[in-house]
């Protein structure tokens, strides 16, 4: 599914995508803008936004055990405020079992050069300002020099860009769930503008 809007299955302007999805999942490379888009989409829809990084990362950059994280995620998805829908962002495969109710997926498939530029800028800003992320965690300036992709988010994003493209391209090809593929900032703006509040 692409964001052309010129047919029944052609993206954010198409009838199936705008008529009924209330539970969206936003995926894509680190630095592609998942959380920013998910937050804006949730605000337009009037539904909760759940950031999977905030669910799976504990203090001290400790990755929560799947069972622990899924309890947190279940609570955030299943509360009264989430009964009419939600927008979840992130690529965590451990979360998939609880996201079976997803109506559609938004895949941010921006060019690698765009993602890298955004990510380096964001990482430097966070490191300089000591911006707090999840559970008190902060990005560390020297991690940008690490050759370990688990520490260096820029290296992780570079290595996983094609991994995610293959994963979500294959998912879109199955037709099992609608996938809106956004390839540019213009596509993102068009899709977001086409969202309407979810009714009770």
UniProtKB/TrEMBL annotation:
Family matches, as Gene3D superfamilies: P-loop containing nucleotide triphosphate hydrolases
Name this polypeptide is given: Adenylate kinase
Highest rank taxon of the organism: Bacteria
Region of interest: Disordered: 1-21
PANTHER family: TOXIN, YALI0E33011P
């Amino acid at each position: 599914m692409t964001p052309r809007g010129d047919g029944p299955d052609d993206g954010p302007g198409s009838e199936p995508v705008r008529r009924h999805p209330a539970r969206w999942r936003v995926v894509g490379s680190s630095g592609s803008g998942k959380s920013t888009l998910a937050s804006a989409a949730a605000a337009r829809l009037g539904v909760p936004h759940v950031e999977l990084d905030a669910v799976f990362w504990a203090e001290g950059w400790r990755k929560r055990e799947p069972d622990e994280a899924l309890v947190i995620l279940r609570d955030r998805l299943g509360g009264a405020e989430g009964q009419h829908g939600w927008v979840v962002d992130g690529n965590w495969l451990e979360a998939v079992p609880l996201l079976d109710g997803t109506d559609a997926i938004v895949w941010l498939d921006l060019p690698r050069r765009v993602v890298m530029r955004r990510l380096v800028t964001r990482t430097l800003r966070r490191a300089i300002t000591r911006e707090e992320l999840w559970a008190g965690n902060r990005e560390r300036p020297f991690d940008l020099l690490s050759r370990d992709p688990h520490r260096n988010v820029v290296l992780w994003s570079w290595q996983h860009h094609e991994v995610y493209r293959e994963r979500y391209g294959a998912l879109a090809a199955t037709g099992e769930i609608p996938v809106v593929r956004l390839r540019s900032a213009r596509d993102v703006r068009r899709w977001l503008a086409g969202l309407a509040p979810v009714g009770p």
